[in-house]
């Protein structure tokens, strides 16, 4: 195993060489890699260089260089000068690089210690800023979650966004005589609730806060439930209770003389309808009319809402033609009156008898934005019954056709059956197969001779155009030394015939008829081909008939006469989690903005129908619609008219009673007081010195081991200089190979030879196929540039700057070459190289190295089971790597590898946090909560808010389900249950907060050689699953 891995890392195929290296390293894979790579450096072998250049930019001349490659040897100086002149004529292309200018602010440690629990109004990871408290214009406000109250927020927001309902609540008044005559506890409670709901709605209209506190109204409602306060309430149960209270409260106001008559009750008029049930029970017909508020629908077994409704309207079979003696069961329901607001309650929970507990149904159920209710109305009964009968007959035809089609597609009499056309094709292939000729069948495989690669060439560019560099003819021996050696031709293997024993039975390679005349073969082929064509035509006809009938069924209700009662989707209430716990939020259509908004506790954000589909239809994750609220078409138009124009909320505030206006003014005044107090507290704190943008940038991109003073110098070319300094050993080796050229032809000839050979080496390195254990981009900045098709001018200047590095003061030759190169650099003006573009390319490479270092550090920490530290590095590596990958697939590291170990680390850390939490030890519980709040939840939010993979989605569901499983456990302490109730909304909701993740501690990057060795060792170790420490 070690030999195979060492072979993959180094590319060396000699087993004895690999074995000796492992033996010398005492089995240490990292040391063996070091030994082998050092040997390779001592004995470099130059291969042929493919004659490829970077794409010409900005002109047809530049593009022509792709095909007309010019040989840049000392004998071709005229061609060299021509290419340089052409390259100067090209127009530079400036590539836009996106920079992340937002820096994560440090959380104030002292405030975290004094805060008993995180308030929902605070932005996680930052000090609560007053700007986050204020409402923006007329943007809808959120509702504060005061502990498992997301169900309240979802329902109240859906109702508040109905202008008619909002007007009814805000305009609710009772005569003094009614107030004096109220004696019962329920009546007093209902009146108190209406008053609190009025105040809440008034604040939602006119507050200056980004979200409001619904505690007063909520506490009154919660008292009506017998369940413990810590548990979340069911949306349907809460909505039923809410409508009952509102109905009773308005009944006191609208009809004092006849308490039993609810026909004038505005809540009944707005939300309640009636349906007629007709049927047969035990042979007797019956008929009854019932009222409904929320119409329940089963989800299991249905694909969409129309199928759910169809199934709910018909139960059993009613055969009117049957004899009176027959006992029949069945019933039909018909809506006789539909309310302006039609609410469907989707039954997504069922009780599992074997487990003895409820389970959530996660199956997918689609629903439209507009639904036509004509087909369910009693007024359309006769027409719909005829169409249902037509559909029944058509479905019977489809069943017959499907049975016929199945006989073709599952042909045979045994347990295993196949499509008949395929079976005929197999027989036809058998018939047309011929036995091989006498004599053994030999297959000669010849190795294709390797084509010699093109001669090594040097990139043309403007670095030599503005200089007086004259290239003298070099010795032929030097050219021969720099040129790739010819590979001796490989002898072709000779395949010798293998003589089998005479007694060995000859068996053909493929089944074939042994004895058959040409006449027989022709007849069989003709019959099989004709039969197969006939069968295929039969199958095509059957499928076409089925599709045609299915299309007729789908269009059955498209009659314009059955599209007279449209209802528009107003709100979707979503539940995420399991049967015993979860999180609720709502999608509500905003008529003035003509868009969907997502109401998630304190957060109100703009959304889309695509996001609503993803979260509401179900089937993909543990989130699905639980309640659908449709409004009549006329009411939808009325809502649009009421909400038209800006400042509608302000107009409604002006029409409020004086006491509600005063209530709003007091709350807004308190907000200003809170802001002033917060600003006073901030001014009393010791101000922290924030790093300037320049120093931040330098700290972010610093890659060298320089001291702090030199690292902070505001040098425009600091990154390129650092990259040049990192390659000084390679540069010195290139200069050392120019001794002959330096002695015979001078400094400029030596620079030319070193430049050419170094580029040839890096070009070959960039063309190498990367392996899981090696990444050539880590070896040199130009490998990164070449693999990403950087502009030629950027490549040329970078390579010239490598030879102009002031650290090349080894001997007189190095100093002379360095001085000439620095002169050439000064001669390159802004018209030759776009320095902004040049800087951005080096910034990208610096970020790539940083991502690599963070990835390796995270993997090492993960292997050493330091999951908290590892997760921070891996998350930051992934986020930074995403920025690079937006610019090109070769700009960053392996995204799937980072995501894999980020996911593994997150799961491990979740296990640790959960174990600490259920330990009941106060210190351990606090530690588990801290891990969840500071690492797991922010990481989950970052993952979900980006393009999430199915693997990440599954991992997040596993983590959520684990925490949800603790809800309602009898052996868990009440205090833990309360803490769990505070954690779950954040764990399940990934949009209500702004997530800021701190950057991990800075790490001094390794030299290119050390970084490559470390990369190889770590990549090797993760496949071996063994702990590794690279010095």
Describe the structure concisely.
Residues 141-633 form the USP domain. The chain has 1031 residues and is of the alpha+beta class.
Would you write up a description of this structure?
This protein is of the alpha+beta class and 1031 residues long. Among the domains are: 1-37, Orthogonal Bundle (Helicase, Ruva Protein, domain 3); 383-432 and 517-564, no CATH class; 719-833, no CATH class; 850-1027, no CATH class. Strands 5, 8, 11, 12, 13, 14, 15 and 16 form an eight-stranded mixed beta sheet that branches. A hairpin with a 2-residue loop joins strand 3 (273-281) and strand 4. The model is unreliable at 40-128, 226-233, 439-504, 685-716 and 1025-1031 (pLDDT under 50).
Write the layout of secondary structure elements.
Layout: H1 2-10, H2 15-24, H3 29-42, H4 60-64, H5 77-89, H6 109-114, E1 142-143, H7 150-160, H8 163-170, H9 176-181, H10 185-206, E2 211-212, H11 215-222, H12 235-254, H13 266-271, E3 273-281, E4 284-292, E5 294-298, H14 305-313, E6 314-316, E7 330-337, E8 341-347, E9 349-352, E10 357-360, E11 370-372, H15 381-409, H16 420-431, H17 476-482, H18 518-554, E12 566-578, E13 581-590, E14 595-600, E15 603-606, H19 609-616, E16 623-632, H20 633-642, H21 648-654, H22 658-684, H23 693-701, H24 708-711, H25 718-726, H26 728-736, H27 739-745, H28 747-767, H29 781-787, H30 792-803, H31 812-827, H32 835-863, H33 867-885, H34 895-917, H35 922-944, H36 950-964, H37 974-988, H38 1008-1024
Parallel strand pairs: 1-2, 5-8
Antiparallel strand pairs: 3-4, 3-7, 6-7, 8-16, 9-10, 11-12, 12-13, 12-16, 13-14, 14-15
Helix pairs in contact: 1-2, 1-3, 2-3, 3-38, 10-11, 10-12, 10-22, 15-18, 16-18, 25-30, 26-28, 27-28, 28-29, 28-31, 29-30, 30-31, 32-33, 32-38, 33-34, 34-35, 34-36, 35-37
């Amino acid at each position: 195993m070690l030999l195979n891995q060492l072979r993959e890392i180094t590319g060396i195929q000699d087993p004895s060489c690999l074995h000796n290296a492992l033996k010398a390293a005492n089995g240490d894979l990292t040391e063996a890699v070091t030994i082998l790579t050092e040997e390779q450096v001592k004995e470099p072998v130059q291969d042929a260089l493919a004659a490829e250049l970077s794409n010409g930019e900005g002109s047809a001349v530049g593009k022509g260089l792709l095909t007309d490659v010019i040989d840049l040897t000392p004998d071709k100086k005229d061609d060299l000068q021509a290419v340089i002149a052409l390259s100067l004529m090209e127009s530079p292309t400036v590539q836009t690089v996106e920079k992340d200018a937002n820096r994560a602010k440090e959380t104030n440690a002292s405030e975290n210690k004094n805060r008993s629990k995180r308030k929902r109004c605070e932005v996680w990871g930052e000090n609560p800023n007053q700007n986050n408290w204020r409402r923006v214009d007329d943007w809808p406000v959120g509702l504060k979650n005061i502990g498992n109250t997301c169900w309240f927020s979802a329902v109240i927001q859906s109702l508040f966004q109905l202008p008619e309902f909002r007007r009814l609540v805000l305009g609710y008044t009772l005569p003094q005589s009614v107030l004096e005559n109220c004696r019962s506890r329920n009546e007093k409670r209902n009146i108190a609730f209406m008053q609190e709901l009025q105040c809440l709605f008034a604040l939602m209209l006119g507050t200056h806060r980004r979200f409001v506190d619904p505690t007063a109204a909520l506490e009154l409602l919660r008292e009506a439930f017998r369940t413990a306060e810590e548990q979340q309430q069911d949306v349907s149960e809460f909505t039923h209770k809410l409508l009952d209270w509102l109905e009773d409260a308005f009944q006191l106001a609208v009809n004092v003389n006849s308490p039993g008559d609810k026909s004038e009750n505005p809540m009944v008029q707005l939300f309640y309808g009636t349906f007629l049930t007709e049927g047969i029970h035990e042979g007797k017909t019956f008929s009854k009319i019932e009222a409904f508020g929320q119409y329940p629908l089963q989800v299991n077994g249905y694909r969409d809402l129309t199928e759910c409704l169809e199934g709910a309207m018909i139960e059993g079979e009613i055969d009117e033609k049957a004899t009176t003696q027959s006992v029949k069961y069945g019933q039909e329901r018909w809506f006789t009156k539909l309310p302006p607001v039609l609410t469907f309650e989707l039954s997504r929970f069922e009780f599992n008898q074997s487990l003895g507990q409820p389970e959530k149904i996660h199956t997918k159920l689609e629903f439209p934005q507009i639904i036509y209710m004509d087909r369910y109305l009693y007024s359309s009964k006769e027409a719909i019954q005829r169409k249902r009968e037509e559909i029944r007959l058509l479905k019977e035809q489809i069943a017959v056709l499907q049975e016929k089609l199945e006989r073709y597609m599952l042909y045979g009499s045994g347990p295993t059956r196949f499509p008949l056309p395929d079976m005929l094709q197999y027989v036809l292939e058998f018939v047309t197969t011929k036995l091989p000729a006498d004599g053994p069948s030999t297959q000669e495989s010849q190795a294709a001779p390797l084509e010699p690669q093109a001669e090594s060439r040097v990139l043309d560019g403007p670095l030599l155009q503005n200089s007086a560099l004259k290239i003298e003819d070099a010795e032929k021996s030097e050219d021969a030394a720099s040129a790739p050696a010819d590979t001796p031709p490989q002898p072709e293997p000779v395949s010798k015939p293998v003589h089998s024993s005479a007694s060995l039975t000859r068996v053909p390679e493929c089944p074939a008829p042994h004895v058959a005349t040409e006449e027989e073969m022709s007849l069989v082929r003709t019959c099989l081909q004709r039969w197969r064509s006939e069968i295929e035509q039969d199958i095509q006809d059957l499928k076409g008939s089925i599709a045609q009938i299915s299309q007729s069924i789908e269009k059955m209700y498209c009659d314009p006469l059955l599209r007279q009662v449209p209802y528009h989707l107003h709100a979707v209430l979503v539940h995420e989690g399991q049967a015993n716990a979860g999180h609720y939020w709502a999608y509500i259509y905003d008529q003035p903005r003509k868009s969907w908004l997502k109401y998630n506790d304190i957060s109100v954000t703009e959304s889309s129908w695509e996001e609503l589909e993803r979260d509401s239809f179900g089937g993909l994750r543990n989130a699905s619609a639980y309640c659908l609220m449709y409004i009549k078409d006329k009411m939808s138009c009325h809502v649009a008219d009421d909400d038209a124009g800006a400042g509608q909320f302000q107009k409604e505030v002006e029409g409020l009673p004086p006491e509600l206006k005063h209530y709003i003014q007091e709350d807004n005044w308190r907000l200003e007081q809170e802001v002033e107090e917060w600003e006073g507290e901030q001014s009393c704190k010791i101000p922290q010195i924030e790093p300037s943008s320049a120093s931040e940038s330098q700290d972010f991109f610093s890659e060298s081991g320089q001291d702090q003073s030199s690292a902070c110098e505001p040098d425009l070319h600091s990154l390129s200089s650092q990259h040049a300094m990192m390659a000084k050993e390679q540069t010195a080796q290139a200069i050392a190979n120019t001794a002959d050229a330096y002695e015979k032809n001078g400094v400029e000839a030596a620079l030319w030879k070193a430049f050419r050979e170094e580029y040839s080496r890096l070009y070959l390195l960039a063309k190498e196929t990367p392996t899981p254990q090696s990444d050539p981009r880590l070896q040199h900045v130009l490998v990164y540039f070449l693999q990403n098709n950087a502009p030629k001018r950027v490549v040329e200047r970078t390579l010239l700057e490598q030879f102009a590095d002031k650290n090349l003061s080894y001997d007189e030759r190095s100093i002379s070459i360095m001085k000439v190169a620095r002169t050439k650099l000064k001669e390159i003006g802004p018209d030759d190289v776009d320095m902004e573009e040049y800087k951005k390319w080096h910034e990208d490479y610096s970020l790539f190295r940083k991502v690599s270092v963070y990835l390796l550090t995270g993997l090492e920490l993960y292997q050493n089971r330091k999951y908290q530290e590892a997760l921070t590095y891996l998350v930051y590596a992934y986020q930074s790597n995403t920025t690079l990958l937006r610019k090109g697939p070769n700009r960053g590291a392996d995204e799937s590898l980072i995501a894999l170990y980020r996911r593994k680390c997150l799961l491990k850390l979740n296990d640790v946090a959960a174990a600490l939490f259920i330990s009941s030890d106060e210190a351990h519980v606090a530690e588990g909560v801290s891990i969840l709040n500071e690492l797991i939840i922010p990481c989950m939010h970052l993952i979900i808010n980006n393009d999430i993979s199915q693997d990440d989605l599954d991992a997040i569901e596993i983590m959520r389900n684990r925490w949800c499983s603790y809800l309602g456990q009898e052996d868990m302490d009440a205090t833990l249950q309360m803490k769990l109730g505070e954690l779950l909304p954040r764990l399940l909701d990934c949009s209500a907060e702004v997530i800021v993740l701190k950057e991990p501690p800075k790490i001094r990057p390794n030299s290119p050689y050390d970084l490559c060795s470390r990369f190889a060792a770590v990549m090797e170790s993760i496949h071996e699953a063994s702990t590794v420490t690279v010095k």
